Amino acid sequence: MALFGEREVDPMQDGSGWKANTGRLRSRHAVSGTFGHLVGGYGAGYYGYMWSEVLALDMLSVYGKNLMNPVAGRRFRELILSKGGKGPPPKLCASFSPRSLAKAFSKNHRTARRLSTRHVRLRRPPPLANHSDPARGRAAAFFFLFTWVGGDPAYLLAGKISNPEQIESIRRQLGVDRPFHVQLWIFIQQIATGDFGESWSTNEKVSAIFATRLGPSLTVLVPLLAVDTLLAIAAAMLVAYVRGSLTDPHGHDRTGTSASRSASSSTSSCSSTCSRTNSAGFRSRAGGNGLTENLLRFSLLPIIVG
Amino acid sequence: MIVSLAPDTRLYRSFFSTRSNQDYVRTARAKGMSETRVMWVHVLRNASIPIITQT
Fold it and tell me: Is A73 a residue whose pLDDT tops 80?
């Protein structure tokens, strides 16, 4: 329960509700949605979790309302437990509850999703109104990306002690149970006013967080951009000035006229010989004579520079 | 730093080289201007327009 500080605090206790307890949060944890479960190979495993939940719920449905159903219990013991790993699992499951698995999935996956504590929201966003304003479209895309990928913030905040009522209560207090278009409108208002509310983890105002970080970031970034540009201009001018010589391999991909023109202006007169040496120079710079030379000579440069 | 400089340099180089092939540069050279002055005044001034835009 690192999220709730030094001692374990049930956020729903002493009747004060979750919001009063957030003031006591000591954590520096950034609560954020991640892509981790969706990309990087874990997605297939996640699909497996969902399937096992579907199977479990499907088998549970045999019991009906009574969990102590003796008939179903005996069947479970005989068809599943006593068999162990003796048969392929799909066959064992099918012998216990003969419903087809595809049907079980379509019937149970809503329940499975509701019950799952690792609940990922994969709800399709409602159709957008035809906005002509690109900024608003971008805001909407941003908003839906976060609601879609980020998962349910209530689950992240509730931590391990989640039960459905607590989750519902947190969702109500955060306002994430409201319809999508209402949430989107609140989000647009927040962008327009610059008031993004308070941070979940530190209770600081988000606009204040932005304001205090913006200055230092800009003092680093703006001079860096200026220096970068000036250096690039200097280097580019130099390269453009000595164009056609060996320092400028890109110049050779043009037709010979432009390269030889600038070459003739900077050096003395040479018209046909220049292009010939240029093409020879180009070939030598494109790579070595073999793997060893490429490896020992040309591949070292990016390693040294990088 | 050096690595991040490279793409900018490549881009600016092409700005400079397109400018230095323009007719007004040839005219400036034909007037007998020094190569340095051509580069700094005629080429740099005109090439700075796309550079500033891009930055």
Answer: yes
- Tell which of A239, A257, A267 to mutate to test the B interface (max B CBs under 10 Å): A239
Cβ contacts (< 8 Å) between A225 and chain B: which residues? 55
Q: Nearest to residue A4, comparing CAs of A19, A24, A20, A18? A: A24
Residue type, A266: S
Query: Measured between CB atoms, does A228 come within 8 Å of chain B?
Result: yes
DSSP state, residue A19: H
Kindly provide the ipTM of the predicted complex, given to two decimals. Answer: 0.76
Percent of chain A with pLDDT over 70: 40
Query: Could you say which DSSP state residue A3 is in?
Result: G
Instruction: Compute CA distances A85 → A50, A56, A76, whole Å.
Output: 21, 17, 14
Phi, then psi, of A248 in degrees rounded to 5: -125, 80
Chain B hits for A241, Cβ within 8 Å: 16, 39
pLDDT tens digits along A272-283: 344 444 443 334
Distance CA A137, CA A145 (A): 12
Residue in chain A lying closest to B5 (CA): A232
Q: Count of CB atoms within 10 A of residue B36's CB?
A: 9
- Is 0.90 topped by the overall pTM? no
Q: Residues A138, A144, A148, A154: what is their CA dihedral angle, to the nearest 10 degrees?
A: 120
Q: Could you give the angle at the alpha carbon of A84 between the alpha carbons of A78 and A90, nearest 5°?
A: 90
How many Å apart are CA A255 and CA A252, to the nearest integer?
Answer: 7
Q: Is the pLDDT of residue A129 over 80?
A: no
Residue range B2-55, pLDDT digits in tens: 677 788 888 888 888 888 788 888 888 888 888 888 888 888 888 888 888 877
For A152, what's the count of Cα atoms within 13 Å in the CB-facing half-sphere?
Answer: 26
- DSSP conformational letter for A205: B
Q: How far is B51 from chain A (nearest CA, A)?
A: 8
The minimum CA-CA distance between B41 and chain A, rounded to whole Å, is: 12
Question: How confident is the model at residue A20, as a pLDDT?
Answer: 53
